[in-house]
């Protein structure tokens, strides 16, 4: 009986020691679990904060993207307006250039015509003068009047010739100005 009692007491002590060991293990595991829960809670708070910051960053980026798109569209519209204005101005100057070129051609033709007419008129007057001098030796007074009139007419023709020549020079100068202006427009980057 004593032996059995001692044996049972030894088993009880062993069981108590084992229970104490399990209890310590349970407390250690509970402490570790508490640390894990706290760490998880910190991670969840950090994740929530990161999500909030990510959302704000995404919203800021969308606002920036929208503003950049609007600025780009505005710049594009301004560039198109400037190009349209320059294109219209170029068209107007080209039409003016064509008009001046046509005017110059007309003036050159008119100048040549007047020059020929002047030469023919001079030749005709010279022939008439020679003929009158041969045929009308007796009409010296009338002949002098005729010569005077012919000289006056010749002066008027020369004056007309000079005026046409002056208009031709002015037209050539104006054409050169339009040519320089056209070259300046062609050198502009927006127009190219």
Structure description:
The chain is built from 2 helices and no strands. It starts with a helix and ends in a 5-residue tail after the last helix. With 192 residues, the protein is mainly alpha-helical. The chain is rod-shaped. The model has no long low-confidence stretch (mean pLDDT 92).
Major sheet details: none
Q: Classify the helix fraction into a percent range.
A: over 70%
Mean pLDDT: 92
| Rg calc | 57 Å
Strand fraction: under 5%
Low-confidence stretches: none
The helix tally amounts to 2
Distance between the termini: 120 Å
Number of E-type strands: 0
- Secondary structure category: mainly alpha
Order of helix and strand elements from N to C terminus: HH
Query: Globular, elongated, flat, extended or rod-shaped: what is the shape?
Result: rod-shaped
Question: What's the structural blueprint in terms of helices and strands?
Answer:
Layout (H helix, E strand, L loop, with lengths): L1 H134 L4 H48 L5
Helix pairs in contact: 1-2
Summarize the structure.
This protein is mainly α and about 190 residues long. The protein is about 95% helix and about 0% strand. Helix 1 packs antiparallel against helix 2 (about 140-185).
Please supply descriptive tags for the structure shown above.
192 residues; rod-shaped; mainly alpha
């Amino acid at each position: 009986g004593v032996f059995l009692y001692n044996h049972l007491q030894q088993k009880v002590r062993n069981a108590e020691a084992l229970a104490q060991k399990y209890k310590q293990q349970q407390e250690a595991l509970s402490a570790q679990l508490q640390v894990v829960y706290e760490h998880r809670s910190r991670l969840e708070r950090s994740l929530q904060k990161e999500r909030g910051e990510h959302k704000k960053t995404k919203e800021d980026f969308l606002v920036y993207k929208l503003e950049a798109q609007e600025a780009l569209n505005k710049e594009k519209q301004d560039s198109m307006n400037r190009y349209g204005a320059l294109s219209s101005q170029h068209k107007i100057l080209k039409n003016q250039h064509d008009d001046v070129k046509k005017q110059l051609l007309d003036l050159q033709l008119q100048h040549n015509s007047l020059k020929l007419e002047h030469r023919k008129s001079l030749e005709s007057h010279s022939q008439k003068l020679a003929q009158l001098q041969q045929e009308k030796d007796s009409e010296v007074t009338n002949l002098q009047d005729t010569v005077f009139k012919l000289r006056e007419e010749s002066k008027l023709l020369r004056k007309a010739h000079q005026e046409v020549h002056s208009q031709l020079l002015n037209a050539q100068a104006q054409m050169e100005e339009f040519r320089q202006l056209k070259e300046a427009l062609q050198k502009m980057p927006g127009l190219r």
